[in-house]
Inverse folding.
């Protein structure tokens, strides 16, 4: 939801399917480079991480490497807090994202039950 | 000392200082654990990432002493650190039924999540994982905020609004904060430090629904949200 709304303000029709399926473009500028960086930071290969970090640096500059790293770290934290403590999405967000969740297959996540059990 | 001094990339928003403060907080007594116990939890979370191959072991790194951590706590820490996608209510109940209180559980989730944050950030910018400080002396408070109540999460939280009383007013400052920022409030210090990390690394508190808000000059808001969304998809986090 945040992704689509933030895209509208910048005049971009964002395709959130690209978050799940890397063969689909999100339509966000340099989105593919950012997604590759996320994957390599959370992956096992140091060589892939070094390459994706260099690619991001070339595409968006040195501050973007630091900023993207901070956001990845933050959501690494938040995902563990959310999954670990069983917090649900607000009812309003659940209603607004019904179609989107189906399209992205998010309801299959184990943590989906924390929200689905209340709705 | 700047813990990210070796970085080739400029660190932003005072993150070096904030992460250093977070490491120091691990070394101090909390609600449940003393400084030694909390550091052992943080070390075991890191060790789990190293063992799983998603973190590089730093030079001169001293691993957690397995004798210092009960098997059920090890199971909790390792799962949260490297397999957060498999956690469900059955897992939570098993840990609680194994003798871990909901306050202890919440504090451990806080320590592990924040350790992972620091370690992932360091790995992402290409610097060694920062060393943990020495433990500080003192006893845990064992103080549960009486305002904490069962809401919609598995663990109790301090509610927003009048029922949160003074502690709620102090923590939330009247802001309509999302559940993720209240989730650790059963252990208020864990909640406070999570808010500091959030406002450093992602968004000023209370700004997240303002889609024109930009936390970084170097990334557009859609670029920020692409990163957030992809990480959560990889961690299979529905929230």
């Amino acid at each position: 939801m945040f992704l689509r709304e933030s895209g509208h303000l910048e005049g971009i029709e964002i395709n959130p399917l690209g978050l799940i399926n890397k063969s689909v473009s999100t339509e966000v500028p340099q989105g593919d480079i950012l997604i590759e960086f996320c994957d390599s930071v959370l992956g096992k290969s140091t060589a892939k991480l070094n390459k994706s970090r260099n690619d991001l640096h070339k595409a968006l500059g040195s501050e973007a490497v630091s900023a993207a790293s901070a956001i990845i770290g933050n959501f690494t934290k938040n995902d563990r807090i959310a999954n670990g403590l069983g917090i649900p999405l607000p009812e309003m967000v659940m209603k607004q994202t019904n179609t989107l969740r189906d399209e992205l297959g998010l309801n299959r996540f184990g943590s989906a039950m924390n929200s689905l059990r209340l709705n | 000392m700047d813990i990210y001094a070796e970085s080739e990339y400029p660190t932003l928003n005072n993150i070096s200082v904030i992460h250093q403060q977070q490491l120091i907080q691990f070394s101090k007594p909390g609600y449940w654990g003393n400084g030694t116990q909390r550091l052992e939890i943080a070390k075991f979370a890191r060790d789990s990432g190293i063992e799983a191959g998603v973190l590089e072991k730093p030079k001169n790194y001293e691993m957690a002493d397995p004798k210092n951590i009960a098997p059920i706590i090890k199971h909790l820490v390792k799962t949260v650190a490297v397999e957060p996608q498999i956690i469900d209510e059955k897992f939570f109940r098993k840990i609680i039924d194994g003798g871990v209180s909901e306050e202890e559980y919440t504090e451990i989730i806080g320590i592990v999540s924040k350790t992972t944050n620091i370690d992932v950030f360091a790995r992402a910018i290409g610097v060694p994982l920062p060393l943990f400080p020495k433990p500080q002396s003192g006893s845990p408070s064992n103080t549960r905020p009486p305002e904490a109540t069962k809401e919609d999460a598995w663990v109790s939280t301090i509610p927003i609004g009048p029922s949160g009383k003074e502690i709620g007013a102090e923590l939330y400052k009247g802001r309509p904060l999302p559940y993720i920022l209240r989730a650790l409030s059963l252990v208020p210090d864990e909640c406070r430090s999570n808010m500091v990390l959030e406002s450093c690394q992602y968004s000023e508190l209370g700004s997240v629904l303002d889609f024109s808000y930009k936390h970084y000059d170097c990334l557009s808001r859609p670029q920020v949200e692409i990163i957030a969304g992809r990480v959560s998809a990889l961690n299979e986090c529905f929230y």
